[in-house]
Design brief:
heterotetramer, A mainly alpha (230), B mainly alpha (512), C mainly alpha (79), D mainly alpha (505), A: 230 residues, mainly alpha, 8 helices, 68% helix, 0% strand, D: 505 residues, 2 strands
């Protein structure tokens, strides 16, 4: 009965949504994305238009999103008090232990690369941060098995990084405000956009990339580790 | 509505009250009667300070109501009347049960009135008191006013409250609560023959139900319904003189109905119960009270020198619908029968032996006796002992004095009707001529009582109760509430289902 | 044309996986299928030339979310 | 002044965010962060009142990053924001001040600052997606605050809140994507230009999604069922903030959506003629034809009925108050949906009054219940601090909720009734008026139960009590003062409504 009702509701919803969506303008009718890409290079110096949108045009949204993650990390750390690792009571074999140690630098470098090259190639702070967090999580999971707890970074340090990153993001924003009158301003502050395509280009975008990458990475690490070790 | 309008609406009433003779008459009568009623209450029992505050609010709002110039103040004062009454009732021993019935109906009335005002404002754009009646929402307003006036299908709050409170409280409440409903009709509704006939019908039905009562206070309560019928017929008429007659009847009713309630209070405190058939000839032991009761009964039955005669005659004379006139005549006869019965059983006839006749078969409230005897340990045959204070003969004398003043008022209002209320037609005075015609319906009533009442009584008692509809209504409501509760029982899946279904319905309506 | 066909194919497959996620008896199977679902979405994004979104979806949708669910499953089925 | 005014919208959001690391730092240094937090919160509440200073520009636009609204995000401190910023600030402050120090540990104050930042952002932003982001911040911090007690009830409440809130967020996000796909813009102020005056199917469907998402957050029937469950398990001070401040912020976004998206409010019903049933069916068909606003009227009617009737049978005060909120937002939405200037003004006024009244009543619970767990109406007493004052203030607040004259709720309800009736939705007017009747029944039951008994055990006076008491009295005082200042407030509300309707068109 319940399943039938649920299926019925979903079906009707899908049909109605499809009916409504059938009127959406097709891709051919919209030429804006292309314009955006061309414009964003001139405006922000970022080759990757998505990064330009995320960290310049709509950097305020990014600030908000990063705040969401910080909030969640704060909540999870508070609501799920850390206890002894109860999830993985098995001892990891030597292969896993050493494999992880060998793997970690690569993961970290990969995450950093995604983060740092966010304004040039696909990727960016968010993605890089998630990748970074996986390295911390992997380490914590593998080496916390069996009772003792060990982390790449202690939880307190994680929290500290998170708060510093938050402050740094706001500081970049206030810098823009002081320099040009607009919160989170980039090119308008006159810091120079550099040569498009080089690592140090696009003004504050790489900086914000790193900051939000740290925020996200540390935040997610806190969340997952807290959940694991609850 | 702009803020300026809002403040103007309030300020207008304060600065320039609406002073017309009808409003003045009603306000003055209510004020004067209430003072006497307060004195009456104070003479016998001790009430708490806040009881007096609540009662004063109730009465003061009722007195101010006729002077309002705009609908906002009208509504506010209307609410104050209700709240004052709530305050008074809150001090009753059975407050919870009383309020459970009183409040919802009163609030329903207030809500309906508010929305009717909204509709009127919507059409006319003005909050001033309409000259020609509400332009929109008149039906809704009429429903609200009918509830307040305790018209028959929605009379429940009044009959149950007035019969379950301590008897003195009913004296105070009777002056304002139902009356402002009628007064509201006078001010807000432009009536017509339909309203006249409806008033007549209410008068007749009220009398029939009054006739079957055997508890004094039920008897009086249903007579309020019946008298309200007269008033509605009057103020609901488009003829100006009939309206004036209706208002005058309202004022008279405040006086003689209050008087009757006082008589009943004294009878109850004398005998400790309120069964009409067991009053045991109170006329012998309380001769002054008997005279007062006769005056009040004559007044309500429309006997010539008294005030009830004048107003009834004016109403019947000027109504445009002959059907309404006929109904009112029938109601008049019924009233006469009814009050002959009252006087006969209470003051002149010796008690029926206990157990004769079916006890307690047709009273609306089963537990009446429990409430009509306020102090549980009242000494039999003794005086008033409410709130534990021993009765004093002085207080009884003071009460009688107040009653006598009111019965004099009945005579004065009858003889000097036109002087008191100039809006009445000039020939409305009591003359010798009036005795010829005016005595006829009461005489018929007395005659019918003497000949047919004993045969009529069983038939009356077999009538279905006027509150036939309440039980299914309340079970339905309970069921609805339980179903609603069921839907909020904490099952998240159900909540999500509601959200999605709501979305589907809205989508379907909006985009298909 | 080619693009449309591949997107349509992927989407059809997506739908199948989604239905399987809902009807799967084993919770673990459902979680894993959700990971598969995310990978398919990633493919769709790649085909639609949105590499940024694809990377993010791969990392978060296929990786992180699956991990969360597995943890939650483990925590709740222990008792 | 002008420079500062231009930055004020940003400060109102960024400074509460900055408070989060700041409080962390203070905690690390071992100092007591509570007093700092309260002081800072008070400053933020004061800052929210700054736009009322004379000489402050009528409308301030802060372009984030210097980008205009069609490509970037802008914050707009307009009349609507000016009206609701202080409401959110002050009630948030009252809720935070009244927090039980035993409960307000760990991330409580950071979370309340996030709540403030999110609410301020919701009120200020001129960008639909940015509103979504702030909505998420607000929602997530409120989920956590609801479950903050970490007991079973708290977790259950928080969980239900999360589940329903997530569905609402998903619908909202879906709708935002749809609106962006149709119009190519996210700025409220551009929708009107970017969409045709008679919007197509897709646009309306997307707008419906956004509206439904917001209505779920607000708690309008049939999207309201979570509300009592969420508020019943929350700490009382949090419940006061959520029921007063946060909801106001959601309401502002709803108003912005409705006033800017074509097919929004201001549809102008016509009074129908004919017999009652003819008229009724004509009204219904007209509502249906009116699209979103018509649906809103019907939903508001459903909210009023369902909210009040469900509240009738509640035995716990917090649940009762939650359902009463459902009904009151029904009133407010009716005023909004009708969409004439005075009706909208009535809705704003009622939203503000309701925020204070409801927050006050939620603050009554810690004063009257003998423990945090028990708020059964039958076990409430009129409080341990100055019982007479608490009792009378509580009665006054309930009078406001019911809409009885000397309390503020009356004036706004009166305006709503008159104006909905005037604009051609008399059934909404009747329901609003009747709603008060039902409300008085249960509020009277509450008053009689709570005031009827004073506590017999020895009074326990703690500093926390005094603070709750003070916050409670502020709410009651507002309700009293606001009634006598109805003229002033109605004037303000009308000017806000005028700019809101005029600016959006």
């Amino acid at each position: 009965m319940k399943r039938t009702t649920a299926a019925l509701i979903v079906t009707v919803l899908v049909v109605l949504a499809g009916f409504a969506a059938s009127e959406l303008p097709s891709e051919a009718e919209r030429a804006e994305p292309v314009n955006h890409a061309i414009r964003s290079l001139a405006d922000t110096g970022a080759v990757n238009a998505v990064s330009a949108v995320l960290f310049d045009y709509r950097a305020f949204d990014t600030l908000g999103e990063a705040t969401v993650i910080i909030t969640t990390a704060m909540i999870v750390a508070f609501l799920a008090p850390q206890a002894r690792a109860s999830m993985l009571s098995v001892r990891m074999s030597g292969i896993v232990l050493y494999g992880v140690v060998l793997l970690l630098p690569f993961i970290a470098v990969f995450g950093l690369a995604i983060m740092l090259y966010g304004h040039i190639s696909p990727g960016g702070g968010f993605t890089g941060g998630v990748v970074l967090s996986t390295s911390a999580v992997l380490y914590a999971v593998v080496y916390s098995a069996g009772g003792q707890q060990s982390y790449v970074l202690a939880p307190a340090t994680n929290k500290m990084i998170e708060n510093v990153a938050m402050t740094a993001f706001l500081a970049v924003g206030f810098f823009g405000m002081a320099a040009s009158g607009a919160f989170l301003a980039n090119a308008a502050t006159g810091i120079g956009l550099g040569t498009p395509g080089s690592l140090l280009s696009a003004g504050t975008i790489p900086l914000l990339n790193v900051i939000s990458g740290l925020k996200v990475g540390v935040g997610l690490a806190i969340i997952i580790i807290s959940l694991f070790l609850e | 509505m702009s803020s300026a309008q809002f403040s103007n609406a309030v300020a207008a009433t304060v600065r320039s009250p609406l002073l017309d003779s009808g409003g003045l008459l009603v306000a003055a009568t209510i004020a004067a009667f209430s003072l006497l009623a307060f004195a009456f209450v104070a003479a016998g029992v001790r009430r708490r300070f806040w009881w007096w505050v609540a009662a004063s609010v109730h009465v003061a709002a009722g007195v101010l109501l006729p002077f309002t110039r705009d609908l906002l103040s009208f509504f506010v004062l209307w609410e104050m009347v209700t709240l004052g009454a709530v305050g008074v009732l809150a001090f009753e021993p059975d407050a919870r049960r009383l309020l459970r019935l009183y409040l919802p109906l009163q609030l329903l009335a207030a809500a309906l009135l508010m929305s009717a005002f909204g509709a009127h404002y919507g059409v006319s754009g003005s909050l001033l008191l309409p000259v020609q009646g509400l332009e929109a929402g008149a039906g809704v307003a009429l429903a609200a006013l009918s509830i307040k006036a305790a018209v028959i299908p929605v009379h429940l709050w009044m009959t149950r409250t007035y019969t379950a409170v301590r008897p003195e409280t009913a004296v105070v409440l009777s002056a304002v609560a139902t009356k402002i409903g009628v007064f509201g009709m006078y001010r807000l509704i432009s009536g017509g023959p339909t309203l006249e006939i409806a008033g007549g019908a209410v008068a007749v039905v009220g009398v029939i139900y009054a006739l079957r009562q055997k508890q004094l206070r039920h008897f009086l309560a249903f007579h309020i319904v019946s008298q309200v019928g007269y008033m509605i017929a009057g103020v609901g008429s488009t003829v100006a003189f009939a309206g004036a007659g209706g208002l005058f009847h309202l004022a008279n009713n405040v006086v003689y109905k209050g008087l009757l309630f006082m008589v009943v209070v004294m009878l109850i405190s004398r005998f400790g119960h309120s069964n009409i058939y067991r009053m045991n000839g109170a006329g012998r032991s309380m001769p002054v009270l008997a005279v007062v009761a006769v005056v009040a009964s004559a007044s309500i039955s429309g006997l010539p020198p008294f005030n009830g005669y004048v107003s009834k005659t004016v109403i019947e004379q000027f109504l445009s619908s002959p059907v309404a006139v006929a109904l009112l005549r029938i109601a008049g006869v019924g009233t006469a029968i009814s009050f002959t019965k009252f006087l006969w059983y209470c003051f002149f006839k010796r008690a029926e032996p206990r157990g004769a006749g079916r006890e307690d078969t047709c009273d609306e409230i089963v537990g009446d006796n429990a409430h009509s005897v306020p102090a549980r340990s009242r000494p039999a045959g003794g005086g008033v002992a409410v709130d534990g204070r021993p009765a004093a003969h002085a207080s009884a004398r003071r009460r009688i004095a107040i009653a006598v003043i009111l019965s004099l008022a009945c005579v004065v209002m009858g003889l000097a009707a036109v002087a008191i209320f100039p809006a009445l037609p000039a020939d409305a005075a009591v003359t010798l001529e009036s005795f010829r015609f005016g005595l006829v319906p009461p005489a018929i009533g007395v005659l019918l009582f003497a000949l047919a009442y004993s045969r009529l009584r069983p038939a009356l008692e077999r009538l279905p109760s006027a509150t036939l509809y309440t039980r299914p209504l309340s079970t339905g409501a309970t069921r609805l509430l339980r179903a609603l509760q069921e839907q909020h029982s904490g099952d998240v899946r159900r909540y999500l289902g509601w959200i999605l279904m709501g979305l589907i319905v809205i989508w379907a309506v909006v985009i298909l | 044309m080619m693009l449309n066909v591949s997107v349509a194919l992927l989407c059809a497959f997506l739908l199948l996986v989604a239905v399987y996620v809902v009807v799967a008896r084993s919770v673990l199977a459902a979680i894993i299928s959700m990971g598969v679902f995310s990978m398919l979405v990633t493919a769709v994004f790649v085909v639609l030339r949105a590499p940024d979104v694809a990377v993010t979806e791969a990392v978060i949708g296929a990786g992180l979310i699956t991990a969360f669910f597995v943890i939650a499953l483990d925590k709740t089925s222990e008792q | 002044m002008t420079v500062f005014a231009g930055h004020l919208p940003v400060f109102l959001i960024a400074l509460p965010l900055l408070a989060v690391p700041l409080l962390y730092l203070i905690d690390r240094l071992g100092a007591n962060s509570r007093n700092v937090a309260l002081l800072f919160y008070a400053l933020m509440a004061l800052a929210a009142g700054v736009p009322w200073l004379p000489g402050f520009p009528a409308e301030v636009v802060a372009e984030i990053g210097g980008w205009p609204a069609d490509i970037g995000i802008e914050l707009r401190l307009d009349a609507l924001a000016r009206l609701f910023l202080p409401v959110v600030g002050v009630i948030g402050l009252l809720g935070t001040v009244a927090a039980d120090p035993g409960e307000a540990t760990g991330p409580f104050y950071p979370l309340s600052f996030l709540l403030l930042a999110g609410s301020n952002g919701l009120i200020l932003t001129n960008d639909l997606f940015n509103a979504y982001v702030f909505l998420e911040i607000t929602s997530i911090s409120s989920y956590a605050l609801v479950g903050f007690r970490r007991d079973t009830r708290g977790f259950e409440s928080g969980f239900k809140y999360i589940v329903v809130g997530s569905l609402a967020s998903v619908l909202l996000l879906w709708g935002i994507a749809g609106l962006y796909a149709v119009s190519g813009t996210l700025a409220f102020s551009r929708f009107a230009a970017a969409l045709p005056a008679v919007p197509g199917r897709a646009a309306v469907a997307a707008a419906v999604l956004v509206v439904v998402g917001l209505l779920t957050k607000l708690g309008i029937a049939p999207f309201h069922a979570w509300k009592a469950d969420a508020l019943a398990g929350a700490p009382r001070s949090v419940a006061a903030t959520l029921a007063g401040a946060t909801v106001s912020a959601y309401f502002v976004v709803l108003v912005r959506v409705l006033t800017t998206v074509p097919g929004g409010i201001g549809f102008g019903l016509r009074p129908a003629t004919g017999g009652f049933f003819m008229r009724l069916s004509a009204y219904v068909s007209e509502f249906v034809a009116a699209g979103i606003p018509g649906m809103l009227i019907l939903l508001s009617g459903a909210s009023i009925i369902v909210g009040h009737l469900t509240a009738l049978r509640q035995t716990r005060l917090s649940r009762l108050l939650a359902y009463s909120s459902v009904a009151h937002f029904g009133y407010i939405i009716a005023g909004v949906a009708v969409g004439t200037v005075p009706a909208l003004a009535g809705a704003f006024l009622h939203a503000v009054h309701h925020a204070f009244m409801k927050a006050g009543l939620f603050l009554f619970i810690p004063l009257a219940a003998d423990s945090a767990e028990r708020d059964r109406i039958t076990s409430l007493t009129c409080g341990r601090t100055a019982p007479a004052l608490v009792g009378s203030a509580m009665i006054f607040l309930t009078m406001g909720m019911v809409g009885i004259p000397p309390a503020a709720g009356f004036a706004s309800k009166w305006i709503l009734v008159l104006e909905t009736a005037r604009a051609g939705a008399p059934f909404a007017a009747i329901l609003i008026a009747l709603g008060g009747a039902i409300a008085l029944v249960y509020y009277l039951r509450l008053s009689l139960a709570a005031v009827g008994r004073t506590r017999s055990s020895s009074p326990r006076r703690s500093p926390a009590d005094v603070r709750v008491f003070a916050a409670f009295l502020v709410c009651a005082g507002y309700v009293f003062v606001a009634f006598w200042a109805t003229d002033l407030l109605a004037g303000i509300a009308i000017s806000v409504a005028e700019t809101t309707l005029g600016g959006g068109g």
